[in-house]
Write a structure and sequence with these properties.
With about 140 residues, this protein is of the alpha+beta class. The protein has two helices and six strands; from the N terminus they run ββββαββα. A five-stranded mixed beta barrel has the order 1-3-4-6-5. The chain is globular and about 45 Å long.
Length: about 140
């Protein structure tokens, strides 16, 4: 089974492009995910994980996700290799998003950009699918 569940803050705004062959939208971004434990006397460590979202989910991410926001991602790990023009082999491991969620409260979203930049600075490394609908809190049954 290949399933990943992550919660972290976006290190940059999602970057959106289209594939050359099928003109499919793909959005990529990275999450700063805090490690669970902190060694005594040390600062909390974070891992910077690359995320890729395709089609409708990619469109959702590029439209609504911004640097510093806390989000939840469910997906799968994928590894790829390719050779560049000089014959050099490249390897990349990334998470292919299948579901994406907001993890900030509305109040937290207003202050998250400032706290993120204070923590990571500007140089941090960087399915809802078609069923997704935005709803106001008035529509919720509780």
């Amino acid at each position: 089974m290949n399933k990943v569940i992550l919660m972290g803050r976006l290190t940059r705004d999602p970057e959106t492009r289209y594939t050359q062959t099928s003109n499919t939208l793909v959005s990529s971004f990275s999450l700063a995910v805090n490690r669970r434990f902190v060694r005594q006397g040390e600062e909390r460590q974070a891992d910077f994980i690359n995320i890729v979202a395709w089609s409708k989910l990619g469109e959702f991410c590029s439209k609504y996700f911004k640097k510093g926001q806390q989000v939840g991602i469910i997906g799968r790990i994928q590894t790829r290799t390719w050779d560049d023009d000089q014959g050099q082999r490249h390897y990349v491991t990334e998470v292919v998003a299948e579901e994406a969620y907001f993890a900030d409260s509305k109040r937290d979203t207003e202050t998250s950009n400032n706290s993120f930049e204070n923590t990571f600075g500007d140089t941090a490394p960087g399915n809802m699918g078609s069923d997704f609908e935005m709803s106001s809190s008035d529509d919720l049954p509780f």
